[in-house]
Amino acid sequence: MSRIITVGAAQMGPIQKDHSRSEVVERLIDLLRTAHQSGCDLVVFPELALTTFFPRWFVDDISQADHWYETEMPSPITQPLFDEAKKLRIGFCLGYAELTPDGHRFNTQILVEKDGSVVAKYRKVHIPGHEHNEPNRPFQHAERYYFEPSMDGFGVWKAFGGRLGMMICNDRRWPESYRVMGLQGVEMILCGYNTPIHYVPDPSQDILQGFHNSLVMQSGAYQNGSWVIGVAKGGVEEGVDSLGQSVVVAPSGQIVAQAFTTGDELITARCDLDWCAKYTGTLFDFDRYRRPEVYGRITSQRGVVID
Ligand code: CDT
């Protein structure tokens, strides 16, 4: 079996508030067709790829936001994406807001195989931002109001001839996300993101957004010997400028493809999964070199404890 996955990182430009789901699905299908022409096996779309990044607004009654969430997947509106992917025999990874039948709200990503079957669902673990309205901000980042953190953690699934994992946006900044997948032998991590350039709590970080984006994914890839595919929804969405710079990072930590616009743009890379073993079988041979007996604080404590 081939150990090469030709991956397409399907960066999206902004989705404005008045853009319909159907219009967005058309854009996703266009990207999918471009990926097919480029020989892709798998296309990765961003976090919350079906809607604008709605946590930038606060509503007093959360049910007023129900229309941003998907209650079924596929739905009549997203079915054409599933149909086209199956016809072209391309898999895809799609981020969206999920409202479950029993009323739980998650920031979710699914992985769909070339035959159209949903092989995995991942729900965001690290939920950034704030839970309450902060009216003095130029825009809200109320993800902690709109989404509950997943208790499922980071899975790794056999798909596309390899071992694939997923994470969403803020998860990429936490080394634990990669390591939990690394310990399950992950070979490719798929990550969608929406990252405003302006970080309200500390604007001195604004100029570093691109640097931090690459820094975390390059180090996560290298330290775990895995491919990392980071895919943005970038550009100016409802007046908020967001980072593009989607990347494909090799297990060496090297960037092998990077988007240069902030709009809808497909970047591709031929990812040899056997490259992972050059790292996981040598310098990062976990079984040989890790020292879990001295890492207890990682799972037994949340914040900093100063003795
Ligand atoms: N979507 C998401 O998780 N964005 C955050 C923004 C910074 S926290 C307000 C990120 O980590 O990119």
Describe the overall structure.
This protein is α/β, with parallel strands linked by helices. Helix content is 22%, strand content 25%. It has helices spanning 21-37, 79-88, 143-146, 175-182, 209-224, 277-280, 286-289, 297-300; strands spanning 4-11, 42-44, 91-99, 105-112, 118-123, 156-159, 162-168, 188-193, 227-232, 235-237, 240-242, 247-249, 255-258, 265-272. The strands form three sheets. Strands 5-4-3-2-1-14 form a six-stranded mixed sheet, with helices on one face. A six-stranded mixed sheet has the order 6-7-8-9-12-13, with helices on one face. It starts with a strand and ends in a 7-residue tail after the last helix. The structure holds 4-methylsulfanyl-2-ureido-butyric acid. 4-methylsulfanyl-2-ureido-butyric acid binds next to loops.
Ordered list of secondary-structure elements with their pairings:
Layout (H helix, E strand, L loop, with lengths): L3 E8 L9 H17 L4 E3 L34 H10 L2 E9 L5 E8 L5 E6 L19 H4 L9 E4 L2 E7 L6 H8 L5 E6 L15 H16 L2 E6 L2 E3 L2 E3 L4 E3 L5 E4 L6 E8 L4 H4 L5 H4 L7 H4 L7
Parallel strand pairs: 1-2, 2-3, 7-8, 8-9
Antiparallel strand pairs: 1-14, 3-4, 4-5, 6-7, 9-12, 10-11, 12-13
Helix pairs in contact: 1-2, 4-5
Bound molecules: 4-methylsulfanyl-2-ureido-butyric acid.
What would a concise description of this structure say?
With 307 residues, this protein is α/β, with parallel strands linked by helices.
